[in-house]
Design goal:
Order of helices and strands: HHEHHEEHHHH
CATH superfamily: Winged helix-like DNA-binding domain superfamily/Winged helix DNA-binding domain
Strand order of the largest sheet: 1-3-2
Helix content: 55-70%
CATH class: Mainly Alpha
Structural class: mainly alpha
Number of helices: 8
Number of strands: 3
CATH architecture: Orthogonal Bundle
Oligomer: single chain
Number of domains: 1
Shape: globular
Largest sheet: 3 strands, antiparallel
Length: about 170
């Protein structure tokens, strides 16, 4: 199945491999502490990285069946994490994650034991990208993956502060 021309699905193979590592890591860990089905977590992470996708793109990226993708997309729409539009002049639906959705305090409190692992994995990925920047910077998707990892690393200290604030309880 080929990626849609209307999205940024066609990443360079080297960048695609890094993206798959990110998605695999976060979809497994996300499922563990949110209780969401791994398919929903995986689809959500692809939206976080790519922003705009069709269901066909998601099938190609995840290897999931049309029914599994449709169910995950419906759940994300119901949770107000993504929105649905129609590509002008077609009947094709395009789904978008415009902003990082609000995540409950319970989610942050339950992530504490994973933050160290997540941070180390992300630092290692960023180091690989930094060390190979000259070779990889022109590859399709490099900037998007690099920026995603950088944003995630920037959120970790904020997450730790937020978790400590929640643990202290009401003021």
């Amino acid at each position: 199945m080929k990626p849609s021309n209307n999205t940024s699905s066609a990443f360079d193979p080297e960048i695609r491999k890094i993206e798959e590592e990110i998605v695999d890591f976060f979809s497994k860990k996300g499922s563990e502490f949110t209780g969401k089905h791994p398919h929903v977590s995986m689809v959500m992470i692809y939206f976080y990285v790519r922003k705009r996708l069709t269901q066909r793109d998601l099938q190609m990226l995840t290897g999931l069946s049309a029914g599994s993708v449709s169910k995950a997309v419906r759940q994300l729409i119901d949770m107000n994490m993504i929105t649905k539009d129609t590509i002008a002049g077609t009947h094709t639906r395009i789904y978008t994650m415009d902003k990082i959705p609000f995540i409950s305090p319970r989610f942050f409190l339950s992530t504490g034991r994973y933050i160290g692992n997540i941070e180390e994995e992300l630092k290692e990925m960023k180091k690989t990208l930094d060390e190979n920047k000259e070779k990889m910077k022109n590859l399709e998707g490099y900037d998007r993956i690099y920026n995603t990892i950088t944003r995630m690393l920037g959120l970790i200290p904020l997450t730790e502060v937020f978790m400590k604030t929640l643990e202290r309880g009401p003021i």
